[in-house]
Design brief:
CATH architecture of the largest domain: 3-Layer(aba) Sandwich
CATH class of the largest domain: Alpha Beta
Largest sheet: 4 strands, mixed
Number of helices: 5
Strand order of the largest sheet: 4-7-5-6
Distance between the termini: 92 Å
Shape: elongated
Number of domains: 3
Strand content: 15-25%
CATH topology of the largest domain: D-Maltodextrin-Binding Protein, domain 2
Length: 195
């Protein structure tokens, strides 16, 4: 006949419970003491998103020393969302009018953007439809370009109805200011000094 020694079983159970508790506390301590590294895909270094991303980095790292944020300069919304979707970034700035993808969700609105279409003061153009066949200072990539296409489509216009000038924001700006473009399109916050 096998005789159960309840004291022996109780000691084994308490020992196993103690080891489990120690292991759980060790894992929690290890995870709490680790520095978390986060990548923020933030757009061009001259843009509001990048500037706000750096400000966010400063504030977060000051108040949460175990969090380190790397702010990456990118080509804009489309690249940011692609990086987020692929796991190359944990945070991304994006224009709200661009579909974000299945891995994204909105965390905060940083600022309101406004579509801005500028022409020279002496231009006869009174609206977007007057720019059919004209040169638009706008890089053909990124969320800003997608926003332009969306607005143009609303007026029954297609990309083929325009000539796009500039490979990036700076090239487009120079083209407009030098008269090599009839209009410039920007998605910026009201009061942005670059307008």
């Amino acid at each position: 006949m096998v005789r159960l020694d309840f004291n022996h079983i109780l000691r084994l159970a308490l020992g196993a419970l103690s080891l489990t508790l120690i292991a759980v506390l060790a894992v929690a301590w290890w995870q709490g003491s680790r520095t978390q590294h986060i990548t923020l895909a933030a757009g061009a270094s001259s843009g509001e998103s990048y500037i706000l991303g750096n400000a966010l980095k400063t504030v977060v790292e000051r108040h949460y020393p175990k969090i380190r944020i790397t702010v990456l300069e990118t080509g804009g919304t489309v690249e940011n969302l692609t990086m987020l979707q692929a796991g190359g970034a944990q945070l991304a700035t994006a224009q709200a009018d661009i579909p974000a993808g299945s891995r994204a969700r909105s965390v905060a609105v940083l600022y309101d953007d406004t579509f801005q279409l500028l022409v020279a003061k002496d231009s006869p153009a009174q609206g977007l439809v007057d720019l059919r066949g004209k040169r638009i200072a706008l890089a053909q990539s990124g969320g800003q370009f997608q926003s332009f296409l969306h607005v143009a489509e609303h007026f029954g216009l297609r990309p083929a109805d325009f000539q796009f000038v500039g490979t990036n924001d700076e090239d487009a700006r120079v083209a407009f200011l030098s008269g090599c473009a009839d209009a410039i399109f920007r998605v910026r916050a009201v009061g942005d000094p670059s307008i």
